[in-house]
Automatic annotation (TrEMBL):
Stretches assigned to coiled coil: none
A Pfam match: TTL
Keyword Zinc: no
GO terms under biological process: microtubule cytoskeleton organization
Composition skew (Acidic residues), residue ranges: 15-29
Catalytic activity: L-glutamyl-[protein] + L-glutamate + ATP = gamma-L-glutamyl-L-glutamyl-[protein] + ADP + phosphate + H(+)
PROSITE patterns registered for this protein in UniProt: TTL (PS51221)
InterPro entries: TTL/TTLL_fam
Protein name per the record: Tubulin--tyrosine ligase-like protein 5
Organism: Thamnophis sirtalis
GO terms, molecular function: ATP binding; tubulin binding; tubulin-glutamic acid ligase activity
Sequence similarity: Belongs to the tubulin--tyrosine ligase family.
Length: 220
């Protein structure tokens, strides 16, 4: 179940629809809908809630909010069939990837700063700015290494000994001569365990792409 902030205008419409006066709202409360969760002071801020089972049930009542307020989405540089199915099941209409008329952009790549600056209050994206500083293994390693230098190794002693290859290949070989492993190899920008393997010798490593090599922890 996922949540998304609603467009400002939609929030006003929902608020006006749900009660004609403050007294009436206090007595009856906001309209109950499985895709609406009211938050904030006096429960006046609607959050849209997505239900995975809607893909199977194809409930017209679930699609009501998306269809009534003409909510739309676009998918860019990725094939997120599950995301497309969930949004469509909630009444969202898909628009062309080049369109600027959308409420939600689901992209497989990180957005440039100028794109983020053009977003309006009713537009959301699925990436935080510079989130790759944490999600890319090489960037995460470098950032933790920098924190170790600033705040001390003991404070950020949360990673095994690690090297980024091919740039640090000689350093890795020196360390390998003292501890022959096993070592674990990971692509710097992959996920879901793809491309991960164990080695016992530097000769087993391909240096054609950037990779991260860490001392393998048998019982983490």
């Amino acid at each position: 179940m996922k949540q998304q902030d609603m467009p400002v205008g939609m929030a006003r419409d929902l608020e006006e629809t749900d009660s004609s006066s403050e007294e009436e709202e206090e007595m009856e409360g906001p309209e109950e809908h499985p895709c609406i969760m009211w938050t904030g002071g006096f429960r006046r801020i609607p959050i849209m809630v997505f239900h995975a089972e809607a893909i199977l049930t194809k409930d017209s009542y679930i699609r009501l909010i998306g269809e009534r307020y003409h909510l739309s989405f676009k998918i860019v540089r990725t094939d997120s069939r599950l995301v497309r199915s969930i949004l469509s099941a909630h009444g969202f209409r898909e628009v062309h990837p080049s369109s600027n008329e959308y409420n939600l952009m689901w992209t497989g790549s990180h957005l440039k700063p100028y794109v983020l600056r053009t977003l309006t209050d009713i537009q959301k994206v699925n990436h935080f700015p510079r989130s790759y500083e944490l999600t890319r293994k090489d960037r995460l390693y470098k950032n933790i290494n920098r924190m170790q230098q600033i705040y001390g190794f003991k404070t950020f002693h949360i990673l095994p000994q690690t090297f980024i290859l091919p740039a640090e290949y000689q350093e890795f070989c020196t360390s390998y001569s003292k501890d022959r492993g096993p070592w674990i190899v990971k692509p710097v920008a992959s996920s879901r365990g793809r491309g991960v393997y164990l080695i016992n010798n530097p000769n087993q490593i391909s240096l054609e792409e950037n990779i991260l090599v860490s001392r393998y922890i048998n019982n983490p």
